[in-house]
Amino acid sequence: MDYLFFKSLHLILIISWMAGLFYIPRLFVYVAQDNARKRTSIYIEQQKRLLYFTSPLGLLGIIFGALMLAQSVALLDTFWFKTKLVLVGFLVLYNIFLFIEHFRQTQLKIRTVLQYKFINEVVVLILIPIVFLSVFKWQ
């Protein structure tokens, strides 16, 4: 029973975190496109609010994942789970990068639109293998 409860909360929290990881880079694109700087402060404020709201959700999702792992420690012996943990580590690093990039934008150190569009796709490249590993549980 605890395992299913932890799993449900884990999924809800991770999905919420991922929503932020998908949208925050889009706000970076909007800042880069705002050449006249008329709405830049609004986009930067939205970035800040999303970062400070969704990052703790990711942390809680990871905590509930760890609680699930505590009930099934044998997962640590599987290749797919070790690989998933490495990819989750990359998601955490990506989240940290978003904080750094947000700070850069507050100082108006803005990259090109194309660079932000590439940054926006990184999370997808991490998410896809996580989902496939979790569903198929390849050994």
UniProtKB/TrEMBL annotation:
<comment type="similarity">
    <text>Belongs to the HemJ family.</text>
</comment>
<feature type="transmembrane region" description="Helical">
    <location>
        <begin position="118"/>
        <end position="136"/>
    </location>
</feature>
<dbReference type="GO" id="GO:0070818">
    <property type="term" value="F:protoporphyrinogen oxidase activity"/>
</dbReference>
<dbReference type="GO" id="GO:0005886">
    <property type="term" value="C:plasma membrane"/>
</dbReference>
<keyword id="KW-1003">Cell membrane</keyword>
<keyword id="KW-0812">Transmembrane</keyword>
<comment type="pathway">
    <text>Porphyrin-containing compound metabolism; protoporphyrin-IX biosynthesis; protoporphyrin-IX from protoporphyrinogen-IX: step 1/1.</text>
</comment>
<dbReference type="InterPro" id="IPR005265">
    <property type="entry name" value="HemJ-like"/>
</dbReference>
<feature type="transmembrane region" description="Helical">
    <location>
        <begin position="50"/>
        <end position="73"/>
    </location>
</feature>
<protein>
    <recommendedName>
        <fullName>Protoporphyrinogen IX oxidase</fullName>
        <ecNumber>1.3.99.-</ecNumber>
    </recommendedName>
</protein>
<dbReference type="Pfam" id="PF03653">
    <property type="entry name" value="UPF0093"/>
</dbReference>
<comment type="function">
    <text>Catalyzes the oxidation of protoporphyrinogen IX to protoporphyrin IX.</text>
</comment>
<feature type="transmembrane region" description="Helical">
    <location>
        <begin position="6"/>
        <end position="29"/>
    </location>
</feature>
<dbReference type="GO" id="GO:0006782">
    <property type="term" value="P:protoporphyrinogen IX biosynthetic process"/>
</dbReference>
<keyword id="KW-0408">Iron</keyword>
<feature type="transmembrane region" description="Helical">
    <location>
        <begin position="79"/>
        <end position="97"/>
    </location>
</feature>
<keyword id="KW-0472">Membrane</keyword>
<keyword id="KW-0349">Heme</keyword>
<keyword id="KW-0479">Metal-binding</keyword>
<keyword id="KW-0560">Oxidoreductase</keyword>
<keyword id="KW-1133">Transmembrane helix</keyword>
<dbReference type="GO" id="GO:0046872">
    <property type="term" value="F:metal ion binding"/>
</dbReference>
